[in-house]
Amino acid sequence: MGILPCQHKIYMQLALEEARLASSEGEVPVGAVIIKDNQVIAKAHNLREQSADPTAHAEILALREASQQLGGWRLSGTQIYVTIEPCPMCAGALVLARIDALIYGAGDKKWGAVESLFNIPNHPKLNHHIDITGGVLATECQALMQQFFAQRRG
């Protein structure tokens, strides 16, 4: 059963909740939620600072949790909601995990590897491609990032 476009906002709100948690913990506010059969199976937010781990991005942590929940690394039949366009590392991990769809909020002109700088999830030489929907609650997602960095610089 597919996800209807009207449900995108509901799941992106859950990703925004995760991003707000990240912000409250001093982490860059990125949140991710993975859905299978219209059920949340994983959610995470950035934990790079707390874990001293450069790979502790929301997407990677959500992929790890989803893999544990489903008992394997192939996440076919799942969709991931992310507040910000994934970076090259995360976009590659989504392809490797066989995610069916990526729905993201705001684009990322500095690191975005889905549409802004690169198109890793749909590179013609890769063996798996991901359906992409960008711009879901983009204003809210972008505002959260801008507020976070304004406070850090303030």
Helix content: 40-55%
What would you report as the Rg, rounded to the nearest angstrom?
14 Å
The neighbouring-strand order within the major sheet is 2-1-3-4-5
**Segments where pLDDT lies below 50 for 5+ residues?**
none
- The overall strand count is 5
Figure out the total of helices: 5
Strand residue percentage: 15-25%
| Secondary-structure element pattern, one letter each | HEEHHEHEEH
Biggest sheet: strands, sense, closure?
A: 5 strands, mixed
Q: What is the overall shape?
A: globular
Mean pLDDT: 95
| Head-to-tail CA distance between termini | 46 Å
Structural class: alpha/beta
Structure, described:
- This protein is of the alpha/beta class and 154 residues long.
- It has five helices and five strands, in the order H-E-E-H-H-E-H-E-E-H.
- It has helices at 5-24, 48-51, 58-70, 88-96, 138-153; strands at residues 31-36, 39-45, 78-84, 101-106, 131-133.
- It has a five-stranded mixed beta sheet.
- Helix 1 packs parallel to helix 5 (138-153).
In short:
The chain is α/β, with parallel strands linked by helices. It has 5 helices and 5 strands; from the N terminus they run αββααβαββα. 40% of the residues lie in helices and 19% in strands.
Task: Break the fold down into its secondary structure elements and pairings.
Layout lengths: L4 H20 L6 E6 L2 E7 L2 H4 L6 H13 L7 E7 L3 H9 L4 E6 L24 E3 L4 H16 L1
Parallel strand pairs: 3-4, 4-5
Antiparallel strand pairs: 1-2, 1-3
Helix pairs in contact: 1-5
